[in-house]
Design a protein that fits this description.
Length: about 60
Amino acid sequence: MHEAILKQPEGFAHAVRCVIEQLATSISSCERLFLVGIATSYSNSHTGEVHSEAGCTS
């Protein structure tokens, strides 16, 4: 059980990485992508907009 608990962060990171790769593949062909948010989500969507305009890949 202890080993399973220690492996959780690695497993979570792998799962998130897979989802992000799938999302990137899905939206790469979009002509437009609307990022919408309120409060903290707004701040995060604005940051995403700035990074995408700058051509950041990470």
